[in-house]
Records
---
Amino acid sequence: MSETPKINENSKQEQLEQFRVDDANQKMTTNQGLKVSEDELSLTAGERGPTLMEDFHFREKMTHFDHERIPERVVHARGSGAHGVFELYESMKPYTKAKFLQDPNVKTPVFVRFSTVVGFRGSSDIVRDVRGFATKFYTEEGNYDLVANNMPVFFIQDGIKFPDIVHAIKPEPHNEIPQATGAHDTFWDFVANNQESAHQVMWLMSDRAIPKSYRTMQGFGIHTFRFVNDQGKAHFVKFHWIPKLGVHSLVWDEAQKIAGKNPDFNRQDLFDAIEMGNFPEYEFGVQIIEEKDEFSFDFDILDPTKLWPEEDVPVKIIGKLTLNRNVDNFFAETEQVAFHPGHVVPGIDFTNDPLLQGRLFSYTDTQLIRLGGPNFHEIPINKPVCPFHNNQRDGYHRQTINKGPVAYHNNSLAANTPSPASESEGGFVHYQEKVEGKIVRSRSDSFNDHFSQVKLFWNSMSPTEKNHIISAFSYELGHVKNMAIRQHVVDMYGNVDSALATEVAKNIGVNPPTTEESNVTKSSPVLSQENTFMSHETRKVGVILQNGFQGEEVKEVLQGLNVSKIMYETISDKQGVVTGTNNVELKVDETFTTTGAVLYDAIYIIGGSEVDEAFYKNAEHFVNEAFKHYKPIGASHDGVKWLEESNLIGSPGVVDGSGQKFIKQFIEAIGAHRHWDRNVI
Ligand code: HDE
């Protein structure tokens, strides 16, 4: 009899618990368990003599250290992970037989890793790049990995071109410059010569490429997958993650400064939010197309450079992911987790999307080199919570102790077990799609329209978002030394929109496009971040104050922020404590030297009777920088003078006053995220 696993939201944590070790309050030992008597001095012949070969403690410690690093991921090297739970809102039984999508009472443990794509493992979080959003569902039928990105389309249509795009965007090989950015010749040379990249590159130039937080970022499975139900009927499906806090981004000038002030900005935000109990939440959505409608669209639904406009194929919200636990050890969990789009469960199947097909090979292959052999599924973070049995044996670092002499199939000695499971017993049976055709290296013409959906995206942007896109193209292409490449890209985007391409051309010193723009007039409002959900919750305010501030009133405002789940940090010129009227004391969290306006979502400026000139100037810089980045600014008491002297009073998102009315207005301004209608030069 095979075991029937009982899985609940704690199953993965219970499994991991067996591997967790707390070294605190223990005696130090070698890896063989021998107690160590001295850890600071090598064994030497005489106090001033040479180190001895027999010092096994030194040798073990140093050897282990020498081998501490493993190869970083060839892409998505920089990442941050967290544990969580997936809950289903309604049964997907009509569409899929996947067990974790049947019963809304089932809670599935998950591990999620967010990442940038291009930068090395130690690079900044805050770069213009696609973000990864990979989720491992530990289900009773095995691990299901949804290895997604934060943009719904990809650069290329065929997996065979992946090494090319990655070589082009990574630092140039002769001097390994520049780090974690596409703003250089080889990337744009690739783009210009591979026009299927037009759509993804447009997203890359949009605000989506600089997410404010992993908590405010969407996820897209990109490929078209299949749902298969228990009757064997299939539907095409695309997967979406939608953050409950809305989709929010940084502005480019701010992003570049954050990259210096706190390269861990996104990682820190995720970690802190989970530690504080502000658990990030994302709803799970599916877009479903019936098999009979495969050819009813003006694009090929297998083309990964195309999205399914949500106005045509609505997103059905079916569940929720909550991230509720940080990792205990970054390397053991976040670094060693191994995702693979080919880790599927019965009821979820592939399509002939040629990019997906390429991925199905690459992911196991890459883990073999990165994690050092074929047993990476035994690493605790990767281990399924359901049992697994087969005749695979041995290899580096094998943990499982398989009993008995039989490691082959068919056999009589073990009654022909482990035995394959029939479909009704939960065995995975590939969807029996009918395929026929000649063996060719060519692609269907239905993949050839590279510009219509780029125009759809452009049409959907607000004026502010369009300006950001023009600036991003101008910044990136402005870093390209070869003028022919610049011209080539301008001509390429002339196929999308001539106003866009002409503006960029002016900024980068090349000719306006000679190409003809797309005549698509349709737009898709959900693509604009201006239509996203707005919330003040868990935003972080920098509170600038000095001794002599208005004690009681400031306390009231800070309480008001707290009640509304808004975080704050106090900022002054020195660390320690600041004292206001009525002896109200506040601990200073940061100083002008340890932090910066770019690290906050809003500034609340108060001042105090002991403000001197240096304080004034530093605080002025904070206020002006926040203003320039369209952030909400609140001021009370002495704080108002900063607004007056910088002529900011009355500007959108700038609030002054005191008491409950001020608190309400300031919170509203914070909830609006950014105030784009400001006059910023
Ligand atoms: Fe990946 N990708 N990829 N990718 N990808 C990897 O696998 C690859 C693609 C994505 O947090 C690698 O374990 C090929 C699309 C994420 O550990 C590697 C192709 C999408 C992550 C690989 C693609 C992704 C990866 C590197 C084109 C969005 C990080 C390390 C055929 C749907 C997972 C690793 C994590 C990682 C190959 C295209 C998402 C080399 C060949 C499209 C989120 O196997």
Note: The longest strand covers residues 316-326.
---
Amino acid sequence: MKSRAAIAWEAGKPLEITEIDVEDPREGEVMVRLVATSVCHTDAYTLSGADPEGLFPSVLGHEGAGVVEAVGAGVTSVAPGDHVIPLYTAECGKCKFCLSGKTNLCQAVRATQGQGVMPDGSSRFSLNGRSLHHYMGCSTFSEYTVLPEVSLAKVSREAPMDKICLLGCGVTTGIGAVFNTAKVERGATVAVFGLGAIGLAVIQGAQMAGASRIIAIDINTDKFDMARQFGATDFVNPNDYNDPIQQVIIDQTDGGVDYSFECIGNVNVMRSALECCHKGWGESIIIGVAGAGEEISTRPVQLVTGRVWKGSAFGGVKGRSELPDYVDRYMKGEIMIDEFVTHDMPFERINEAFELLHAGKSIRTVLHY
Ligand code: NAD
Ligand code: AHE
Ligand code: ZN
Ligand code: ZN
């Protein structure tokens, strides 16, 4: 199969739009025709060269939606014509992780996924005979892609793909982190660091959970209007203060917030996010992804005195069993997605989508195949 795709040849370089070859799905695999994809900051992070798992050349992209084109032997849960959302967090339902009831981090295909190949160790992508790596088990920056069956959520055919593609990462990650990881309760106070799609989705989740105060924090004040739309009640630009931002939040909240979320990927901000939590019970959730070699630190007394540091991947959501319901809730008007889409473009303009994200001018750019 020939497919339009954007190739990441090397770190820090724009993607090249070209036609690649995509092999048929093998046993347990599914070929999907993407209808829409968006660019998440994690794609930009990997393209920057900071991702220790980053491989080149590769076909990036992990926030998409499409239609099943063909299935390999033994595939039973989806069929051609089904509408699907690719999952970078698979759900096999059988591994130790899936059976634990404690995590969404299925490990069935995680090792090979990190090596940029399918579970059998080979790639389905090539250009002029040269093999290209897969990315996060999804590679949504190709019109046709191949995924393991366990990496697909089958969703309603009624839902617009150019919106529900955002449930493949950003929107689900933020809302899920609020409900599954932090378990924010009614009346709680919340601080959100970073107001991209992830931070805004956390704000949406916090409002749904009934938080009494939602403090939106960003150095780009253009993001505040959008944060207000999603339910933020307070707005803080750290650059307006001489004190460390954790002290500013502590002063504004009678000792600190009940929950904080780091949605940037900055290890210094992760520390601030922990330390602005209330003594005795405050919980800080790391969502942002930091580069190779970066480490977090704080004084142990911060934890000894009751603050809790947690992390969240894909919002703790089990994609195959839970994502169809997220789609249905969007269709019923219970989850806002449209508001995240600040730009729509043909797929060929994908490099502009990266530029807008880096410039802080977009929340999500949806690319149409
Ligand atoms: P984004 O670039 O759209 O948003 C980041 C925001 O942080 C921007 O508004 C920016 O102005 C702000 N920011 C940057 N430095 C800041 C600082 N020092 N203080 C306050 N604000 C600052 O990114 P996004 O797509 O929303 O992704 C956010 C992070 O979440 C990234 O690190 C991404 O890799 C990560 N992510 C993690 C998961 C997961 O499952 N854990 C899922 C998706 C994305
Ligand atoms: N490859 C990176 C890890 C990046 C990371 O933490 N990814 C998140 C999803 S980001 C989506 O935008 C995740 O799901 N992590 C769980 C996992 O298994 O990687 C690195 O630093 O090695
Ligand atoms: Zn993402
Ligand atoms: Zn599993």
Note: The chain is about 25% helix and 25% strand.
